[in-house]
Amino acid sequence: MDRRDKISSQINELVKEYFTGAVKEKFVPGKTRIPLMLPAFGWEEVNESIDSLLSTQLTMGVKVKKFEAMFAQYIGSDYATMVHSGSSANLLAISILMNPALKNRIKPGDEIITPAITWATTVWPIINCGAVPVLVDVDLNTFDISVKEIEKSITPKTRAIMLVHLLGNPCDMDNILAIAKKHNLYIIEDSCEAHGAEVNGKKVGSFGDLATFSFFFSHHITTIEGGMVMTNNEELSELSRTLRVFGWVRDLKNKEKLAKAYKDIDPRFLFVNTGYNLRPTEVEASFGLHQIGKLEKFIDIRRDNAKYWGQNLDKFNDYLLLQTERENTRHVWFGYPMTVLPGAPFTRKEIMDFLESKGVETRPIMSGNIDEQPGIALFNYRKVGALKNARLIMRNSFFFGNHQGIGKEEREAIVSYINEFISKR
User: Given a cut of 90, is residue 425 above it in pLDDT?
Assistant: First the structure.
């Protein structure tokens, strides 16, 4: 065993000892905090990362490629391109569809339909790339884009639908796919909060022309930062790989052919398109290699928690609108959302403040109604209708954490807190 291997082995044993020796804090109702998220990694991810650090092979390399292949297999897509965040994945997806190398490209000024309840960096890349976001309302029961409103919003300028499987609740893909086929529209699935969600046994992220995922610290699995662009189209995949890094040819299947066509240019520095620097690191991929095997277990915990909360809070359906898992879908519950119904004897702020006083971290639904955020007023966009549901969700909806760190004691405590709060009203 050489010096590096010996030291690495010692470090690995110490890291494993550190993680396996950790003792979970005793849960005290009303005092112990229940956060929106808890770190989902352990000694395996840390040791894999240390291996990359000690090797000095740090930027996009063999581990990134391995994680791309593993995640593509899990989702059921042919191709996966890892980037350094889910937001970057959205930027890359829109950039691919608007690139001049694509024959049927989206052009500046064309419209892309997207839900009003969303995360900001679902919408900003549409604007960044020169297209026009068209905001449509969502279904109040799912927070997902309304199929009826999609139909209303289509014009001759419409080129794509950028849907969001919000909080892990899969969209109505059968009807959305039918609309896209009828009007010859691209579909981009923002699946950043929906790892493992399914429709008719098929995972979200495998339906659209392109799909995106995030591996941010708070998501179902994490690479600390990190994201992925998925597709079943080889041309789109190749575009993703050149636009990901500067527009160069290094990661392309036909790089040797291109090098021969431009033999006076050093093939290491041959640029055939525009591009960004969205490279992930080997450290991020190190996490992904071990996180992917834990994903189904994490999803099971989230689904069990959501089932418990649904069964025990349903008695308050005069005051609270809760999500349910629709037939033929698998909801993966990024968080546990609820909407305070108009006419309830309390406000969203009151119940959120009460839960926070008990140690339960809460937050609004993502960016809320993006139409009401001041940033979007700086740019050209269109909205369809009054966005009635989006406005209600902005004011009346919230969620609390649902993750692998929430067990029997924590979920029972949350029910008891809500019982206590409503009983006083």
Answer: no
